[in-house]
Amino acid sequence: MKNQNPPPYPPRFLLGSTLLFWGWQNGLIPIAVFMALVLESARYVRFRWDFSAAEFNRISDLCALIFIGMAVYLFLADRSVFIIFTLLAWLPMTFFPLMFAQNFSVQERIDIRTISLFLRKQKHAAGKHTSVSINLNYPFFALTILCSSFANLRDVRFYLGLILLSAWALLSVRPGHSSPFLWLCLYLAVCAGGYAGQKGLNRLQQILEIKGLEWFYNLEREDADPYESMTAIGHIGKLKPSDRISFRVKTGENTRLPLLLREAAYNVYNSSKWFSLYSDFSEPEADADGTAWNLGPAGNNPGEIRVSARLKQGRGMLKLPTGAFRIEELPVLQILQNSFAAVKVPEGPGLITYRVHYASRTAGSPPEKDDLRIPDQEQQTIFRTAEKLEILHGREAPDAVLKKLNDFFTEHFSYSLSLQPASFPSPLADFLERTRTGHCEYFATATVLLLRAAGIPARYATGYSAHEYSPLEKQIIVRDRHAHAWALAWIKGNWRDVDNTPGNWRAEEEQNASFLQFAGDLKSWLIYRFSLWQWQQTDRKAFSNYLLWLLIPPALIPVRRLWRKKRISPGPESPAERKNMPEPNGKDSLFYCLEKKLGDRVCLRTAGETLFQWIQRIEKSEPAPEPTSSFASLIPGIREILELHYRYRFDPRGIGEEEKEKMEAMIYKYMEKIDKITVSPYFAQKNPEKMYPGS
């Protein structure tokens, strides 16, 4: 320990005030007070520590361990994506040991390689380097301000605090010759521009969220997750579901449309998500042949439908009506069913077609306490709405409750895919008490929670509404935009579908259909027919008739190209005509005479050897004692001749008359020189291989 003068600091109490502001924003006032007192006391304490570079490295490693420890703690305490924001908000605590070491050391600066393991390794690998040192006080000030914003309180107090602290820091470095009034005016202009900028960024964020949500809904809809369903409750913008055909349904004579086909059901709601708790999957009873399964006892007034759907990567959820008790003709080895009557296929072909028998009976396990639970954040709104409807705590019979809820949503609410930001404590509360407009997820969630407030067990169901008949396919087609959500109510010992979404939702979504929908439907039908043939679920011979007709247009494409490019042409009618035909371009090149003379006088070209390889082999050979009279002296000129020959022989554009005359003159010249050169002993070959002139 040594007594030293304190290092240069920011203005007095600036770091302490910034830490207190950070603690106030993030609810960490006690920790912020401790950190502020310690760092500000460095001005008044005379002793200092003489930390070595290795000790600063260890302190930096300690900061990294603190960061990892906080991350592990937050992950164990709250396993959600929001721990990232909390972790970033706690960064000043992570760097506090390093700030303490700097402000209480004899050094005014810290080597930047101390806080970077990568730069530290480079230092050891490359030896001694000129150190790059910095004082961390102002970077720590900026980091603390940034971490204060992660609290996301969204009120004017944060921006005012940011303005005051920034002005405090900037005043300490203001040039003495500048005008205080001009400096203040410029600073206020920057603050006003910053406020307008953050408003613009906020608007940009909303636009990006809207576009991102539209992009998300334009993607192919995935099968429902039987354990969790993330709704679009709380999102803003306009939803644009896809027109893509998801699956097909053939209905019986007594089937009433629209038909709700369920994929999954859920019993716990929290923060715009529905969860399925205590709903483990098990294998239902199967017939001996393994192609039919009994999901439960048969009921009254049975109906029957046939569903054709694709399995992505061989897995997916089956689309079933409420009351489904038997599945037949399903080409898979196994199915699994949970207690909420959701059925999934763990492994199967790309396309499945199955028959479903259903009846007016219960579907799923009897209700439990979770089927009456209302989340704390929604209780006030739900109870207030239920009180207005006079259905709170079982005041009305279940049938009367259902009628009141249906009248309530039908008369006072409207369906819309365009949503605005919520101003109430929760998006659902905003839907019930202010906007009264939303999509099916709003209506289904509100219905479930209001039924629970009335003492009726209820669950949230997701699936599709099958109602669109296709004249092309002569069956019901179900698109991605027909995805739907509704409530399940436990009435008289059975789960009953309760759909309070206004009936005009189907017509409104039809208005949003693309004008290219028919082309997409035709493409989907062709793919569907091919998939039936591919997975051997229809007569291959019948489909082959369609396939042959489909092959005609692609077959015409190469024929058309052959005709246009004249790749097919008749030959000469007689040998005389064939003899009088001109030689192909380049066949009359004088280079072939030069090639023959080289082979006779110098070196034969071997089989399969290109002209350039031949010339290079000659060049690399042993030169004659007198280079001026050797073949080596002729190599550069031969290469130039060879380049002109290649262009004349193979380039579609050929060469001009001047270049051709130049090439021929050079060839005559070099043929005369070849007769005069001295041949190296290397070229004296006793058994030369066959030469290929004119190739």
Polypeptide structure, described:
This protein is of the alpha+beta class and 695 residues long. The chain has five domains: 2-173, no CATH class; 183-218; 228-526, no CATH class; 534-562; 591-683, no CATH class. The protein is 45% helix and 16% strand. The strands form eight sheets. An eight-stranded antiparallel beta sheet has the order 12-13-17-20-14-7-26-25, with helices on one face. Strands 16-8-24-27-28 form a five-stranded antiparallel beta sheet. A hairpin with a 4-residue loop joins strand 18 and strand 19 (343-345). The protein starts with a strand and ends in a 21-residue tail after the last helix.
How is this fold's topology laid out?
Blueprint: E1 2-3, H1 14-26, H2 29-40, E2 47-48, H3 53-77, H4 83-89, H5 91-103, E3 110-111, H6 117-126, E4 133-134, H7 137-149, H8 156-171, H9 180-218, E5 228-230, E6 237-238, E7 245-251, E8 259-266, E9 268-270, E10 273-275, E11 281-282, E12 285-286, E13 293-294, E14 303-310, E15 316-317, E16 320-321, E17 324-328, E18 336-338, E19 343-345, E20 351-358, H10 376-389, H11 398-412, E21 414-415, E22 418-419, H12 427-435, E23 437-438, H13 440-453, E24 458-466, E25 468-470, E26 475-479, E27 483-491, E28 494-498, H14 505-511, H15 517-534, H16 540-565, H17 575-580, H18 591-601, H19 611-619, H20 635-650, H21 657-674
Parallel strand pairs: 21-23
Antiparallel strand pairs: 1-2, 3-4, 5-10, 6-22, 7-14, 7-26, 8-16, 8-24, 9-10, 11-18, 12-13, 13-17, 14-20, 15-19, 17-20, 18-19, 24-27, 25-26, 27-28
